[in-house]
Each structure stands twice: as structure tokens, then as C-alpha cells.
Design a protein that fits this description.
The complex is a heterodimer. Chain A has helices at residues 127-136, 149-153, 177-200, 214-223, 243-251, 271-283, 313-319, 376-380, 387-395, 399-404, 415-419, 426-492, 504-514, 518-543, 548-576; strands spanning 28-29, 36-40, 50-51, 58-59, 64-67, 76-77, 82-90, 100-107, 163-167, 204-210, 230-234, 266-270, 289-295, 303-308, 329-332, 339-340, 353-357. By secondary structure, chain A is an alpha/beta fold. Chain A folds into 3 domains: 21-112 and 119-357, Rossmann fold (3-Layer(aba) Sandwich); 368-474, Fumarate Reductase Iron-sulfur Protein, Chain B, domain 2, CATH 1.10.1060; 517-576. In chain A, helix 1 (127-136) packs antiparallel against helix 3, helix 3 (177-200) crosses helix 6 and helix 14 (518-543) packs antiparallel against helix 15. Chain B has 2 domains: 16-181, no CATH class; 182-335, no CATH class. Chain B has 17 helices and 2 strands. Chain B has helices at residues 17-39, 42-64, 69-73, 77-88, 95-107, 123-134, 136-139, 148-151, 161-169, 184-190, 196-202, 214-230, 237-252, 265-270, 274-281, 292-312, 319-336, and strands at residues 142-143, 180-181. Chain B has a two-stranded antiparallel sheet. In chain B, helix 4 packs across helix 5, helix 12 (214-230) packs parallel to helix 15 (274-281) and helix 13 (237-252) runs parallel beside helix 16 (292-312). Chain B is globular. Classes of the chains: A alpha/beta, B mainly alpha. The interface between A and B is large, with 67 and 45 residues.
Chain lengths: 577, 355
């Protein structure tokens, strides 16, 4: 494809220093096999994979370790051969720093593959069969969010996908993983794209690459020669690689608020995902490694590596010559959207970059000044929000206004905070407000749920009471009819002797109850009140066995109940005698 | 101050509030130099007094409010308020007038609302308006410009430094006549009988486009403003709105060059405080509307009000009042001019809630 198709501009955006050349000089390196791999069961958006191996099992490279659990999940495979030493909570790369369940694999150093099943003639396969291969290879998006690839390809089965967008923009400073991937694996990537294209059958395939990667563009153009894949050069501007932004740049369409790209006939996959799809289908290899950029001024030799999933971060940093005394902040991802991590955590399927920054590179933010509403943030915002107003409402916790000002359309790219002359941690405030609103909504929905349950229970109780009342009336009518019939019969059989009374005991008890004198009734009430008081005290005592007051209350109550009961019984027996 | 969280973005732009403020000051330098050339040391004395007062008052109030003094003084905002006030006040204004204006601006205009970023009114214009309504005599005594004595021998510009200081601190010791004169806006406003051509030969205050001397100062403000727009310190919207609206109003109600003339569009654009207001006053982000469209509307409102007050109102110039009136409208303008967000069919206008 020679003619460059039309592209659109996105509003806002910034041009931070790119800092990409540091890590591209050494090509793509292969660090030595790590002794121990940490394989978290959650390396994607969705639910954790379920282990199918046990501690002590010997596994081969590429062997299935954990299977998907539900629709949004990814299976997990052994990145090398060895022994499962444990399945336990282990360090995990997340902003929270919390540990996550992981399979710990001790390498045996042989790196021996399990038997693979390559598919040579993938073009003859049905899309469903290809989706199956992608699913069973455990591929989640390699761009950053980590959406399970197979689930994403199926996200809106009722929507026709007319455009497949391949995200190779890589707009964040420092990161060069996609760049290196394209320079070294362009042919495989194009095949991967064709497999995706075979599944979706779109009208066009657009690969968006920022124009600061001329080598990658040239390699991709050469590989795509004669294929129906357009390699499109887009202007370098952060955040052009945001999914919504890239779709806008390449198609001029906007993903509706709260919707998915599939709603406008677009599906977006990362370029690294396309390579993983190639490996899964053509080579039969599951996703067990990925390109990771190792960069930052605290590293002596910044570079890109093909790292096994699960490699501890500190081993990769050591490979790149970490100078620990210079390390100020360790970030996974880029300087705009990445998060700080512990170097004991492993790289996972979504880890595209490790940035070991010095204090000059990632300085601690100065104390924020008051907002002067300069509006630079609004000029930088790619979603055309008013960050200065959101800041105002976030400070005042005015949640309805935050929603009205479309807080939830914020993609957290950080452009606003980057340009803010007052160093206000805007993104942080928006994240906090979002989570607060979400938790309020959750509370509301729970309260709604409880209220509905209560109302339904009340309605049911009422219905049951009405039913009982109807039943009682029906019984009374039946009894009245039976009585009338009996009397009529008795009248007609006057001469015959009276029949034996039915249920004499019941009749007598009823008679007795109904004939209590007011005095007896009073005694009966006194007795039952005393019994209730006793029972209540016993219950309280059971709940607080050490309470001396309660213990002391019991004997007098027992005595009172016994007296009252005796008085009542005496009264009734006198009557009876 | 809260502990600053370590979360993304980790990278930081190089922009600082202080840098913005200093660039604003730098952009006023050409106008300041021309003012000094035409009117002598008066504006510089104003500047020293107003900035000194503003910074002192700010420091005092920060101390009263138990805020870190050095930290907040460093942002340069008090300096800018004093500076702009000094440019707006007549050169050689008595020292106490400058003190009242600067004090009012900082105390009532800024800190009683909560300090930087919280004030609804432009502090400098609030201070200016207070002294304008309180001390009309001093506020309308505009000094004679350099070269006026060649047109009218009765006029003597105050050009010496000592003379200037005397004028500011002990005005009684100098002759009261001949050093100040009516501005061109006054002349046009009070004219009922002469055509503009006759007026120009009779009144030395009228220059070739607008007001003698002032027209060049106005062009210098314009140059400084364009510099700020180029440096992205201010956006073009508010100035374009104000100048556009003022130009349109003066075109519609021009009235030709006869005695009923209200002055040509050029006269209004280059006369009085129009250019200073358009690029340095209404662009104060704190008190302006916040979205691009909102700023355009805000500026247009100021432009219309400036014209209305100049031509039909009681004051010869009107930038301060127009700005304060539009400051009142800024929050409402904001509610009705949000941009359309990505993925939404249209912008959500209006208040959105009834409290």
C-alpha cells in the first residue's frame, strides 16, 4: 500500500521528551534463563486462571499450567521446563503492591519444549477454530490493559467489524518494546494480522505507527508489501496510542461514551498481540515470553529483551546494569501512565516496560499550588474534558457535577497533570473520585437490592396472611354447614340416643379456657409475664455469660415465675374441685 | 499541605506558575518603557509602590492566615497584581492612592476569598475601581506627555525623577496647573459642538489615530499580548472577543466625523486601556471564563460593556467596570459553554441541578 490514507487529528495532546533512543541501540537481547519464575494466575483483565498442576509436578516448556475460569480469563503456560515448587501468594506488579496467587516454577535449566502442534494451513481453518487456538494459547492484549484477546475478538458478535486497527503507535515516552518487536518480527506480525483479519473479515486493516519509528515503519511496509494491510504513519503526539485516540486518528470515528470500539465497527489489537497470535497459530506456541523495554538513567545499558513471562524484575534490571544507588523510582510501563512496582515482582503478559528512573528523571513532585484555572490542562486533554472544573468538583466532592462533566470519559493519560503549572496531582484526584463514585453506586445498588427484598417479603407476608384469613373463613363456613346438617339430622332422629361427643377433651379445654374468671385470667397473665422475663434474662446471660448482674437476676426471676405459676394453678384447681 | 501521592504521571512538564507570572511581566516591558518615555518616571514610581505594597500586604495576610509566606510569595501572583495595577493607575498618582488600591486589591480582592485561585473578581481591577469611584480628581489627572509643550506652551510634562517623586509624595509643593490634562476619551466624550477635524486642531490630546502618546503605548501592549499568545501563556479567545466586540460596537455607533461622533473603531481600540485590558487584564485565568468558547463570550461581553460605559455612561474609560461586571457572569458562562467531550453527541449545557 503506497498511498497514505487520510488521517485525523486528536484534540489536545502533549509532546513530552521522547527518551526512546536510549533503549534501541542494542537490538533485542535474550537474557539467560532465570532460576525461578513467578507466574501470577491473574495477568489480564478478568478472573484468575485455575491451576491444573500441583506443587512438585515436573512440567515442560509450553505445558498448560492453569486453565481459564469463565469467559474473561486467560490460561497460563510454563515459560520453561522445571518443577512447580509452590502455588502461593507472591509479589505481583500492581500499584497496590499487594501479593497475588501465583505458580512458582523452578527452572531445571534444560528449557525442554513440550510437544507443539503448529498449524501450517491456517487459512483453511474456520474462524472458530482459530479463536480456539488463540484462546488456548493464553493470549491477552499485550498493549497494557490485558484484555483476553479471544474474548475481545468476540466482544460484540452481533456487530459487523469493518475496520481492524493494529495499535503500534507506542506514544509513551521511553517505551520501545513495540518498536523493537516490529523491527525484528515484521513478517510474523503481518501474518498474525492476517490471521486476525481472517477471523474478523474486515474491509480494511489499518496499522497506526507514530512517525518517530522510521525503522519499524520501513520494516512493516516491506513485510506488508502486496498484502491488504495499510501501514499508516501518524504524527508523534501523546496520547495517540490510546485505543480511542488511535481509532479517532485512523478512522475519524469516536467510540461512544461507555461503549466499545465494536459499537462503531472497529476492533483494536496491539502489535505485540498480533505477534503472539502468529506464534500461537503458526508455531503452536503459547504466550510465554514478550518484549520488555529496560530503560531509565539508573541502568548502565538500557535495552530491549525478549523476557520469559514470570521473570523477576530485579533479574532483568541486573541484566541491564542497574546502579541501585542511582535508582529513585521503579516504574512498570511509561512515565505517563505507569505505576511504581517492587523489583521482587515478575514481568507479566502486560508488562511492556521497566523504567528505572533517577531522581533527575522522575523527580518527586513539588508541593501543589492552588489552581489558577490557566486552562492549559483543558488544552492538553485529548478527551476534551475541562480538567480544571473536574479538579474543582473533585475537591468539593461534588459527585453529580463530576459525572455531569464526564469524569468517566477521562482516560487517565496524565496530559493535564503533565502541563499543570501548579503541579496538582489531577489524575490522582480523578482516580480517587471515580472509585468513590463507584463505591457509592455499589452501596446504592446494594441498598436498592435490600429494599426490594424487604418490600417483596412484606408483600409475601401479606399475601400469606390474606390466604390464612380466607382459609379460616372457609373452614368456619364448612364447620357451620356441618353443624347445621348435624342439628337437622339430630332433629330428625330425636328418638335415637345422642351420639358420643366428638373430641371431648378439646371441647373441655375450650370450655375451661373460656370460663376463666377475671381473677384467674389476671393470674395467668402474671405467670406468663414472669416466664417471659425469665426467658429474656436467660437469653441475655447466654450471650454474656460473664455478666454478674445478669447472673444475679436469674434466681429472683425464677422464684417469681414459680410463685405466679403456683398461684394460677391453685386458682384453677380450686375452681375445678 | 497534603502529602503528594506517587502515582502517574511520573514525568512532569517544565511549566511553573511562577514562569507564567514572570512571562506576563516581561510582556508588559515594551508598554512600560513607552509609558516612561512619554510620561516620565511616574509609572515606574507607581510600579515600585504598588508592587511593594501588594507583596507586603500579601505577606502580612499569609502570616495572619498561618500559611507558608515564602512558598506562596514565590508564585509571583502578588507581584503581577501590583504590577498591573500600577500600569492602570495614572502616572504620579499620590502614594496613598496607590496604597489604598493595592491594599484593597490584595485584602478584599484576593485573600478574603481564600487567596490565589479563589477570587471571583480581578483583584487589580477591584482596587482600581475602588479608587476611581472614591478619588475621581486624582484618578482623572493624567500627566502631560513628552512633546506637549511644543503644541501648547501652557503645558509642562513632568519628566525629571526628583520632580516626579515630589509629585507623588508632596503634590502640594508643586504648581497644580499645566502638568495634567484631559485624556482623549474625555475630550471626545465632552465634545458637543466641534467636528473631529476641528477638535484635533484644538485639542492636543488627540493623536493621529487615538490619543497622542497613548496610541503607541497601546500598540506596545498589543505586541506584548501577541508574545503571550505565542508563548501560550494566554489564549487568543478573550482578547479576540473583546477587541472584536468593541470594534463592532464602535463601527455601528461611530456617527462619522461630525460633532456627534463617538469616535472611530481605531480610536476605541487604541484609546484608553483597551489593549492593556484585552491582553493583560481580562486574560487573568482565575476570574475569566474557563473554556475556549466561554472566554470568547467573556471577552465579547467586556468589549460591549466598555463601549456602552465609555459612550453612554458617566466614566470616560470603562475597562475596570466592564471586567468586574463580566467577572460576575463568568461562572454562569462556564456552565453554558463546556466543550463536547469525546464520544458524546453534544455538550451538556446548563447548571445540571437545582439546589
Amino acid at each position: 500500500m503506497s498511498a497514505q490514507p487520510r488521517i485525523w487529528d486528536i484534540p489536545g495532546g502533549i509532546h513530552p521528551p521522547e527518551n526512546k533512543i536510549q533503549s534501541t541501540a542494542r537490538g533485542l537481547e535474550h537474557p539467560s534463563l532465570p532460576a525461578r519464575l513467578i507466574l501470577p494466575l491473574l495477568q489480564h483483565i478478568g478472573s484468575r486462571a485455575k491451576p491444573v498442576v500441583n506443587a512438585g509436578d515436573r512440567v515442560l516448556k509450553g505445558q498448560l499450567l492453569a486453565v481459564t475460569d469463565g469467559k474473561f480469563s486467560c490460561s497460563l503456560h510454563a515459560p520453561t521446563s522445571g518443577i512447580i515448587s509452590a502455588i502461593e501468594n507472591a509479589p505481583y506488579p500492581h500499584a497496590s503492591g499487594l501479593h497475588e496467587p501465583a505458580i512458582i516454577l523452578d527452572s531445571d535449566g534444560e528449557d525442554r519444549w513440550t510437544e507443539l502442534q503448529p498449524t501450517a494451513g491456517w487459512r483453511s481453518l474456520e474462524p472458530v477454530a482459530l479463536l480456539d487456538l488463540i484462546d488456548s494459547a493464553g493470549i491477552s492484549g499485550l498493549g497494557g490493559a490485558g484484555f483476553p484477546a479471544a474474548a475481545k475478538l468476540l466482544s460484540r458478535p452481533d456487530h459487523r467489524i469493518d475496520t481492524l486497527v493494529i495499535n503500534a503507535a507506542e506514544c509513551e515516552p521511553y517505551i520501545t518494546a513495540d518498536d523493537m518487536c516490529m523491527r525484528h518480527y515484521a513478517t510474523q506480525i503481518i501474518t498474525g494480522i492476517q490471521i486476525l483479519s481472517h477471523i474478523l473479515n474486515p474491509e480494511r486493516v489499518l496499522v497506526g505507527i507514530e512517525d518517530n519509528k522510521p525503522e519499524a515503519i520501513a520494516a512493516m511496509r516491506a513485510a506488508a508489501e502486496g498484502e491488504p494491510v495499510s501501514i499508516i504513519e501518524i504524527p508523534t503526539k501523546y496520547p495517540s496510542g490510546g485505543e480511542k485516540q488511535l481509532i479517532q486518528i485512523l478512522t475519524g470515528r469516536e467510540v461512544p461514551s461507555g461503549g466499545l470500539p465494536a459499537d462503531i465497527g472497529v476492533l483494536c489489537q496491539n502489535v505485540g498481540t498480533a505477534l503472539a497470535v502468529h506464534d500461537a497459530v503458526v508455531l503452536g506456541r503459547p504466550l510465554i515470553h514478550r518484549v520488555v523495554t529496560l530503560t531509565g538513567a539508573a541502568l548502565e545499558r538500557p535495552t530491549n529483551v525478549m523476557a520469559l513471562i514470570g521473570t523477576p524484575i530485579h533479574e532483568l534490571l541486573a541484566f541491564a546494569g542497574l546502579q541501585p544507588e542511582r535508582l529513585h523510582r521503579l516504574v512498570m510501563g511509561g512515565p505517563m501512565m505507569g505505576f511504581t512496582v517492587d523489583s521482587a515482582a515478575p514481568v507479566i503478559k502486560t508488562s511492556n516496560c521497566l523504567l528505572a528512573g533517577t531522581i533527575d528523571e522522575l523527580p518527586p513532585p513539588p508541593p501543589p499550588l492552588p489552581c489558577i484555572r490557566c486552562g492549559l490542562c483543558a488544552e492538553a486533554c485529548p478527551a476534551e474534558l475541562l480538567p480544571q472544573q473536574l479538579h474543582w468538583f473533585a475537591l468539593g466532592k461534588d459527585y453529580p457535577q463530576l459525572e455531569r462533566y464526564n469524569l468517566f470519559d477521562c482516560i487517565e493519560c496524565g496530559a493535564c497533570a503533565y502541563v499543570c503549572p501548579s503541579h496538582i496531582p489531577l489524575v490522582h484526584q480523578y482516580r480517587a473520585a471515580k472509585s468513590e463514585i463507584r463505591s457509592i453506586e455499589l452501596q446504592h445498588s446494594r441498598a436498592d437490592h435490600s429494599r426490594r427484598r424487604f418490600e417483596e417479603r412484606q408483600a409475601r407476608l401479606e399475601r400469606e396472611a390474606e390466604q390464612r384469613e380466607r382459609d379460616r373463613q372457609a373452614r368456619a363456613e364448612r364447620a357451620a354447614r356441618a353443624k347445621a346438617a348435624r342439628e337437622a339430622k339430630a332433629a330428625s332422629e330425636k328418638d335415637t340416643p345422642a351420639p358420643v361427643a366428638v373430641a371431648p377433651d378439646l371441647a373441655r379445654i375450650q370450655a375451661k379456657n373460656s370460663t376463666l374468671t377475671p381473677e384467674q385470667k389476671q393470674l395467668k397473665v402474671a405467670a406468663s409475664t414472669a416466664r417471659m422475663a425469665l426467658q429474656r434474662a436467660r437469653k441475655q446471660l447466654a450471650a454474656n455469660p460473664d455478666n454478674l448482674d445478669l447472673q444475679a437476676q436469674i434466681p429472683p426471676l425464677e422464684q417469681a415465675y414459680a410463685d405466679a405459676q403456683r398461684a394460677f394453678e391453685q386458682a384453677t384447681s380450686q375452681e375445678g374441685s | 499541605m497534603a502529602i503528594t501521592p506517587v502515582s502517574s504521571p511520573h514525568a512532569m512538564g517544565s511549566n511553573r506558575t511562577r514562569t507564567i507570572m514572570l512571562q506576563v511581566l516581561a510582556a508588559t516591558v515594551p508598554g512600560l518603557l513607552l509609558l516612561t518615555w512619554f510620561f516620565g518616571w511616574g509609572t515606574l514610581i507607581n510600579l515600585l509602590l504598588a508592587c511593594g505594597f501588594a507583596v507586603l500586604v500579601e505577606a502580612g495576610i499569609l502570616r495572619l492566615r498561618k500559611r507558608p509566606v515564602r512558598f506562596f510569595l514565590n508564585d509571583g501572583s502578588a507581584l503581577v497584581t501590583g504590577w498591573l495595577l500600577a500600569l492602570a493607575l495614572p502616572p504620579y498618582a499620590p502614594w496613598w492612592l496607590v496604597l489604598v488600591a493595592a491594599g484593597f486589591a490584595m485584602i478584599f480582592g484576593k485573600h478574603l476569598y481564600g487567596g490565589l485561585g479563589q477570587n471571583p473578581f480581578n483583584p487589580a481591577m477591584l482596587g482600581y475601581a475602588v479608587v476611581l469611584v472614591s478619588f475621581p480628581m486624582e484618578m482623572t489627572s493624567w500627566p502631560v506627555w513628552r512633546g506637549a509643550e511644543q503644541l501648547q506652551p501652557a503645558l509642562t510634562p513632568t519628566l525629571g525623577l526628583l520632580e516626579g517623586i515630589q509629585r507623588v509624595f508632596a503634590p502640594g509643593s508643586l504648581p497644580a496647573d499645566g502638568w495634567a490634562t484631559a485624556t482623549a476619551l474625555d475630550v471626545i466624550k465632552n465634545n458637543n459642538s466641534l467636528t473631529l477635524a476641528e477638535l484635533r486642531s484644538a485639542e492636543p490630546a488627540l493623536g493621529s489615530f487615538a490619543s497622542r502618546g497613548w496610541e503607541w503605548v497601546a500598540l506596545a501592549w498589543l505586541a506584548g499580548g501577541l508574545f503571550l499568545i505565542r508563548r501560550k501563556v494566554i489564549s487568543w479567545h478573550a482578547p479576540a472577543g473583546m477587541l472584536g466586540a468593541l470594534g463592532l460596537m464602535s463601527l455601528l455607533f461611530w456617527g462619522g466625523s461630525g460633532s456627534g461622533s463617538n469616535g472611530s473603531p481605531l480610536f476605541h481600540l487604541l484609546g484608553g486601556a483597551t489593549m492593556l485590558g484585552a491582553f493583560f487584564i481580562i486574560t487573568d485565568p482565575v476570574t475569566c471564563a474557563t473554556s475556549a468558547r466561554g472566554r470568547l463570550i467573556f471577552g465579547a461581553g467586556v468589549g460591549v460593556l466598555v463601549y456602552v460605559i465609555r459612550v453612554w455612561g458617566n466614566y470616560p474609560d470603562a475597562v475596570a467596570f466592564a471586567v468586574l461586571l463580566m467577572n460576575l457572569c463568568a461562572p454562569t458562562i462556564d456552565y453554558y459553554t463546556p466543550p463536547r467531550t469525546y464520544g458524546h453527541a453534544k455538550a451538556k449545557r446548563g447548571l445540571g441541578k437545582v439546589d
